[in-house]
Amino acid sequence: MTESLALVLCPSPTERATLLAVLESLGYEALVADTPEGAIALFERRHPDLVVLEDGEGLPSLLRELRQRRRHEVEFFVMTHAEEDALRALEAGASEVALTPLHPALLRHRLQRLHAERLLQRHFHGLQQLCTTASRIAGILGWGWRPDEDRFHWPDEAHQWWRGEPPPNRAALLARVHDEDRLRVETTLEHLRLLGRQAEVEFRLEEEPPRFVRLVAEPCEEEASLILGVLVDVTLARRFEATLERLTQYDELTGIPNRAHFLRAARDMIRQATPERPQLLLCLDVAGLANINDAFGDRAGDELLRTLAQRLAQWAARHGGVASRFGSDEFVALVSLGSESREAEPIEELLATLHNPVGVLTTGGERQELHPRVTLGGAWIPAAGTDVEALLRLARHQQHQAKERGRRYFLTSDAESGETPLLQLESDLHQAIARQEFFVLYQPQRALETQRLVGAEALLRWRHPERGVLPPIQFIPLLEETGLIVEAGRWVIDTVCAQLAAWSDAGLPLRVAINLSPRQIPDDGLVDHIAECLRRHRLPSALLEFEITESLAIRDPERASTMIAAIRSLGCPVALDDFGVGYASLEYMLQFPFDAIKLDMSFVHRLVETPVDRAIVRGVVTMADALDKRVIAEGVETARQADYLHALGVDEIQGWHVGKPMPPADLIGELRKERQRTQ
C-alpha cells in the first residue's frame, strides 16, 4: 500500500490502540489529536488522506468543518457505538461507519477498501494500472463501461473475480444480480448514464451462496462517454457483521432472540394492538431445571432448553409474534391472537407442544426422556396496558400465581390484577350461567355475489354484575382452563337454536355459526345435545353451523374427523376456522369433510399490499370450488379488501366492514331492512 497519512481522534484508549495498530499495518503514518480543535489544526497543517473519528455530540459540526477545509479527496471513517447513530454520521458526511468495539480484521478490511476507492478517484486515467493494483487487494475489481455502446471493459483478472466469463453488457450484468436487488442496480446504472454523477450501490450476485458486492462508479473526467468504477467483494465483511449482529441480538444457547432484541420488537408490536385485535404477552417458567442438571448433567439441561425454545419460537411465529429467552429457565413471548373467540385455544396448543417429551443425552452418554413442566402467566394488550416492562411484571406475577395454585396458566387483562381478583373472577364464572349473566352477540356475514346477509357468527359475552360487560379475553381462557367451557358451550348451542327458531317463525331464517372449543371435542354427549336442541326448537339443521379450527383438526385428526362426520350427519354444516395459520397444507386440510373454509384474518389484512397472499387466497378458492365448499373471509375491515376478495372468488365475508357483533334484535332489524329493499 502506498504511504498515506491518517488523522485519528479517538478518546477511547482501547479503540485508539486497535486503530493505530491496524493503520500501521496498512502503511499509514498516524497523527493523533486529543481534542476536536487539535484535530482541525493537524488537518490544516498536514492534509491527511484519511480521518478516523469516534462518534460524539459534536461529530456533525466537526465533520462539516473538516470537509470545508480539505484540499484534496479525503475519506472520513467514523466509529459509532449504536446502530441508530450510524445514519446520523453518514448524513454528516462520513464515508464509512463501523460499530464499536472494533474487530481488527474487519477494520483492516474496511480501511483497505476506502484506500482503494481513494486511489481510484485520484487516478481514473490509469485504468489498467488501477485494476492491477485493485485486484491485489482482496475482492476489488476495476471496470469501465461505455453506455452508448453498452459495452463493459474488464481487466485480465476479471475472469477470476467473476469466476467465469465477465458480463459483456448491462443486460448480462443485471442477469447475474439477485432478483430482489436487480431494480436497484439497474436504477444506479441509469443514473450514471443520464446524470453523469458518482453513484454506488450494494447488491447480491445470483450465486450459491450469494456473494455481496459493492459497486462504486462515476464518469471519466477525460472521456465523458466512459464510466469507470470498481466492484468490491464485501461478502466476508457482511457475513462477519451478520455474525456479530446475531451474537448481540440472539441467545447463544438457544438461538432465539435475547432480552434486548425482544424488547425492541415488543415495543413495535404493541403499538399495533387494539381491543379488536389484541395481543398476549406470556411469561414461561421451566420447572426443575437445576434438578435435571444435577441428575443428568448440564448438557442435558441445555438440550432441554434448546428444544423448548425452538418449540416456543415456532409457535410464536405461527401466531405472528416473537419469543425470547430472558433467564436461565425463563422465556417470554408476544403474539397476536386476532380471532375474537379463539384466545384460549392457542394457549392449550402451546402447552401441549411444550409438554411433549424431550430426549436428551446424559453425562454418561445415555439417552434419557424428560417430561418438561411449564407454567405460563400472561397479560392481554391493550387491556392490561401498553408499557412493556409493566406488562412483563404483570405476566410474571400471573405465572407465579399459576405455579402456587397448581395451575398450568393464568391470564389477565387487568393491569392491577393479583391473586384475589383472578380467583374471584373464577368463582363468579361458576355462577354466571345460573344467574343468566351470559349473552350472545351476532356478527353478520354477507355474500359477496348478492351483497345480502346470509349468516352470522355467535359470540359469547358476560355481563358481570359488578364489572359490567367483559370481552372474551377476560373470561374465555378461564372457561377453558376450568373446563366450564363445556357447560357454557351447551348453553350457547341452546340459546342460538332458540333464537334461530324465533327468526324462522318470523319468516327470516338465517344461518348462524358456533365455535367449538378443544374442550368440547372430547364431550361424548355433545352431538346428542345438538340433536336434542334441534328437535326441541323444531329447527332446520342447515341453519346451525359449527366451526372447528385448523389447529384442533391437526392436533387430533381422528377424533376431529369423527366429530365432524357426526355433526354433519345431523344435517348441520361444519366450517374450518382460522385456515392458513400454518399447521398443514391445503391439500391435507381439504381431506376433512368440511362444508366451508374460513380464511384467517391475517391473509385479509395483507391482501391489498401483498401479491403472495392474493395468490394463496386464489389457490384456496380454486380448490374449494372444485370440492364444492364455501370460502368465508373473516376480519374484513375495508371496502377495498372486500373488492379484492370478491374479485378472487371468495363467497362470503365477515368483519367490521359488514358489521360489528350486535344483539339479535339489531341483526334481525338489518335483515328486515335488507329484505324490504329487495322486494
From TrEMBL:
What PROSITE patterns does its record include? Answer: EAL, GGDEF, RESPONSE_REGULATORY
Matching entries from SUPFAM superfamilies are given as:
CheY-like, EAL domain-like, Nucleotide cyclase
Q: List, for all copies, the residue spans of the domain called GGDEF.
A: 277-415
Q: Name one Pfam family in it.
A: EAL
Question: By its UniProt entry, which InterPro entries does this protein fall under?
Answer: Biofilm_reg_signaling, CheY-like_superfamily, EAL_dom, EAL_sf, GGDEF_dom, Nucleotide_cyclase, Rev_trsase/Diguanyl_cyclase, Sig_transdc_resp-reg_receiver
Which stretches make up the EAL domain?
422-675
Q: Which residues form the Response regulatory domain?
A: 5-115
Instruction: Give the matching PANTHER family.
Output: BIOFILM ARCHITECTURE MAINTENANCE PROTEIN MBAA, DIGUANYLATE CYCLASE DGCP
Question: Under which name does UniProt file this protein?
Answer: EAL domain-containing protein
Q: Which organism is it from?
A: Tepidiphilus baoligensis
